[in-house]
Amino acid sequence: MERKSFWQSGDKKTLLSAFLYFDVSFMIWVLIGPLAVVIAADFPMTPVQKANLVALPVLGGSVLRLVFGFLADYIGPKRTGQIGMLVSILPLVLGWQVVDSLGQLYVVALLLGVAGASFAAALPLAGQWYPKEHQGLAMGIAGAGNSGTVFATLFANRLAAHYGSWEIVFGLAILPIAVVLVLFTLLARNSPNRPAPRRPSEYAGIMKQRDAWVFCALYAVTFGGFVGLSNYLTIFFNAQYGLAPVRAADFATLCVIGGSLFRPIGGYLSDRFGGARMLTILYGGAALLLASVSSLPPLPVTLTLLFVGMMCLGAGNGSVFQLVPQRFGRELGLMTGIVGAAGGLGGYALPLVLGRLYQSTGSYTPGFLILSLVAAAAMALIAVMQLRWRHGWMGSGGGKASPTAAPAASASPAASSEL
Predict the structure, then answer these.
(1) From CA 185, how far away is CA 180, in angstroms rounded?
(2) 369: pLDDT strictly greater than 60
(3) 50, 166, 190, 312: which could join 286 in a potential S-S bond, CB 3.0 to 4.6 Å?
(4) Which residues share a beta bridge with 418?
(5) Domains of the chain listed by start with CATH number
């Protein structure tokens, strides 16, 4: 059967809806990251407390991605997305009208995780409309909604400075999510090819498979690195280089743009050359660049290194999710939640590592060295697994999408790589 091009396949309105949903949700999810320096003027915090504050939304998102993955499987990704956007308004109202202590702010930060869980609904909503040979690009475009981070880092501190209050930023964020909720309701459709919900007893079986854990580890590095740095870089530029809050957030924005734009590019290149091959290159590049950042060079050099490093991590996100639908096509909703949760846990750990080591040593060098070693370990893992996969579900395609091999991979016991 003749293959259709990407633009002849799928449903473009749904793809746009998934992107907008993920984009506005991601903006809300990381809202506290750039505001942390401004908030610290009202609630003085140690480096560790700042790290905890920006890490809590990521922790909430990690746990709730499992819930959203389950819901996307059972009630459909569209309805799951609608519920997610409605509930995401709650922490915005609390941050705008209620918070008057650091403890209450921690609660708001944790509740912002609802927006971060959008990943587990947005990607299946888009991906289930597209054939295997276009999965990387489709899910890369939907996943490029992590560009919502750009809006948070670019405008949050400016709005806080303009209105003289960081609380008003939470109130203003209600407007875009309300608009997207209406558009999403009108435009998005569940795929007619969406797999039937699976029995709860079958879910545990997925986690008995080695490949599921491997994808979790890989995504914990790529997405965890991206979202963790997105949340923490404003603090880093402020503490290390003495930049004012707005200026520090602007520098963080530049780095985030690199990671956001290259997610769909990573998916596209993985469709062409293989996700495993791309990941090997991208992890190696990230390891080298983060090791270079650990020397804390002059600001222009650091900015360049972090920009390219975030490009590697962003493209790596697209590459991981070029592979996941091939290996777990029938369990895509659930696997998106599981792998997404692992990515969120990586993003939760990163600020804590940087913040605690900075408080104990007075330098960011040890933290960035550890991040570099983690990326190098991921490169070694994907190199080993690629050799195994070539003799299993990946076949001779080297990680490129194969419309014949992929379904068999999801169903074949021989390809399950059980622990």
Answers:
(1) 8
(2) yes
(3) 312
(4) 209
(5) 14-191+205-415 (1.20.1250.20)
